[in-house]
Amino acid sequence: MKAMTFWVKPQSSLEALPEARDLVQDLLELFYEYFPEYEGCLGFSQSPRRPRYLFLYMEGPCGGLLPSAALFLKDLLETAFPGAEVRVYGKPWP
Hints:
Strands 2-3-1-4 form a four-stranded antiparallel beta sheet, with helices on one face. It has two helices and four strands. A hairpin with a 7-residue loop joins strand 2 and strand 3 (54-58). The longest helix has 14 residues, at 21-34. It starts with a strand and ends with a strand. It is an alpha+beta fold and 94 residues long. The protein is globular. It has a single domain (1-89), classed as Alpha-Beta Plaits (2-Layer Sandwich), CATH 3.30.70.
């Protein structure tokens, strides 16, 4: 499976994720150091209302992250948002 979207949500509906723009930009810079072939392929958004879900998604002509890159990014997100749940959605290999 190629990863297409990463969804980060707090464990409890009573909690909310912090404003994540700066943290995600730093996280993506680190990701691109290890996987430069994906530079410019990832976008992100965060819902404005509680619980402020965070979405990282493929954009442009990119066809998805291969498993090693997806696992690395998932680990980065789990480290950056301790206690949050990180779900990965994808599409089958062609």
